[in-house]
Amino acid sequence: MTETAQDRVVIFDTTLRDGEQSPGATMTHDEKLEIASMLDEMGVDIIEAGFPIASEGDFAAVSEIARNAVNSRICGLARANFADIDRCWEAVKHAEKNRIHTFIGTSPLHRAIPNLTMDEMADKIHETVSHARNLCENVQWSPMDATRTEWDYLCRVIEIAIKAGATTINIPDTVGYTAPAESADLIKRLIETVPGADDVIFATHCHNDLGMATANALAAVAGGARQIECTINGLGERAGNTALEEVVMALKTRNDIMPWTTGIDTTKIMAISRRVATVSGFPVQFNKAIVGKNAFAHESGIHQDGMLKNRENFEIMRPEDIGLSGTSLPLGKHSGRAALRDKLETLGFEVGDNQLKDIFVRFKELADRKKEVFDDDIIALVRVGEDAENDALKLVSMKVICGTGGPAESTVEMEINGKDVSATETGDGPVDATFKAIRALHPNAAHLQLYQVHAVTEGTDAQATVSVRLEEDGIIATGQSANTDTVVASAKAYIHALNRLLVRRGKMGEGADSREISYKDLT
Ligand SMILES: CC(=O)SCCNC(=O)CCNC(=O)[C@H](O)C(C)(C)COP(=O)(O)OP(=O)(O)OC[C@H]1O[C@@H](n2cnc3c(N)ncnc32)[C@H](O)[C@@H]1OP(=O)(O)O
Ligand SMILES: CC(C)C(=O)C(=O)O
Ligand SMILES: [Mg+2]
Q1: Which residue out of 18, 77, 241 has the highest number of ligand 2 atoms within 8 Å of its CB and is therefore the one to mutate?
Q2: Residue 205 CA to ligand 2 centre (angstroms)
Q3: Cβ 19 under 6 angstroms from ligand 2
Q4: Where does Mn(2+) bind (predicted)?
Q5: Mean pLDDT confidence for 401-424
Q6: 97 and 115 share a domain?
Q7: Which of 62, 138, 222, 463 is least surrounded, with the fewest CB atoms within 10 Å of its CB?
Q8: Residue 151: CB partners within 8 Å, gap ≥ 6?
Q9: Which ipTM did the prediction report?
């Protein structure tokens, strides 16, 4: 065996070759250089930078990546013919450490494509691997579709490739057909059977058609493979390749049962995952292992409470180990008081138990209407909820009809000093109609100085924060409210401002229930 110690697994990244073969994932020249440099920096042993004969662009990218390489070995792919191999060498030769990777399909189905007999293909393998080895001292050979190749023929062609000078024998599960037990067993038996197997590194190249690419790659390592071929985010043909971040973190996290190491700086995983997602245009699914948005996020109350007590309750890896700043406990409809209190403290609010209870009720109401409750939503909830219990005017319910067919109509039901009253008004738009209905229920001469709407968070279900400023006889009062419904937020903000105006005046407005009540000054 060359290049590696028995417990060290070589990481061969093929994001720029097999990854780029994903339909639509084409990257520009500069993007490829950037990704290659990130792979190099994170400790990837071998970068398969492209397929140089495929196009002038691929040739230029592989050549420049080879020139720029600092630590990684740079590899290019070539079919089993001299033209491909020569072109590949012309590109990779610029790297201090380089590799030619040549392949041919050896299964019955794939032998039929060039219409070669077993013997003819065996000769071709001998010629082409020898040719590659004459150019480059580091040659990888792959029997494409190895896992569907007859056992005897597979052993025969691998022996030929080793004798012709291959230094790495890659066993591709080209169509993602293998299962973990088979994967381990295949590599183990090949190493035991093929003459010269001990002098080369066996590699595993798995595809994810049945969702087993990571399991198959790790099983192959258990069987004796010491090179894993993988891609960032599992990008690759069809369902993709083994994901680099998955095998690397699996080996790190379960080193007790998989005692092999890699040279990867795992803290760089998140950054490269995001960059590859951006440049390839393939977003990472939220629940993707390691790098998905939810991989270190806990929304449900029981989990959040457990996490706050001891993160090991629900996390087997530290988010910092992949370059995240920490665990995320997003607040949503499944969250509980422990996470809400923690969030309030993080945001600088110190709340007592009763206040927490109140905020929690409003928080659950909001969470029922909104997928995710952001920090700004919480701030809005706390501020808006101040002293609501003492308000003389309260919104009970409202219904608005609006559209293109005529003036908007708003029916507002309020509780004014404990008494339910309602009014319907029309207006120039839903907010105007609603404000008129409120004025009908609580007549007042306050002049609307300011009406402002902000979306505090993102998305069509964002909370709108509405600010209203009223002026009456030189007294100014402001009101605010936040709601996913802008018209509801507007009504509440208007009523909030009216309540403050009442407090400032120290008496009820004319026409409303005129019982004397005392208010504390809120402004
Ligand atoms: C499993 C894998 O990931 S294999 C890698 C797959 N990646 C790619 O194919 C991406 C890059 N490919 C390309 O740009 C083009 O296919 C090229 C430039 C390589 C070849 O283009 P063309 O000459 O037009 O051939 P085309 O793509 O139509 O067909 C492939 C040819 O390669 C031959 N071929 C396929 N694999 C091999 C091989 N390992 N060794 C030798 N010849 C091969 C086929 O038999 C076919 O030959 P034919 O044209 O004589 O029938
Ligand atoms: C070129 C080979 C190694 C390949 O990508 C495959 O067989 O999947
Ligand atoms: Mg492949």
Answers
A1: 18
A2: 7
A3: no
A4: 18, 205, 207, 241
A5: 93
A6: yes
A7: 222
A8: none
A9: 0.97
